Here is the input.
Amino acid sequence: MARVTVEDCIDKVDNRFELVLLAGHRARLISQGQPITIDRDNDKNPVVALREIADETLSPGDLKEDLIHSLQKHVEVDEPEADQPALTAEASEAAETPDAPEEAVTFDRMSEEDLLAGIEGLVPPEKSDDF
Here is the structure.
């Protein structure tokens, strides 16, 4: 019965390798407890995953995105870049309104000589003969 299901899925996912990856990922999600979208009919999780793909109860594109996100270790967040003219316009408006609370921003500044003196003052750890 799974062979018929694979043949039905080829229409939805052109690449057989990608189909195996998507169905395997979905089968793992089912075994982790995610609800299934079709009747089980005493089938195992891989067959249920293939039938969900064949019946288009799950989008292959959504499964692919979910698989990619599950494999990513570092996710970069696309943040919109701030427009400099808009920021200066907002800053000038804030300066004109007397009711706006002023925030005092202070920075610790250190000269190059102070930095070098601080580095030279660091003592390296003592070496012991225990190791």
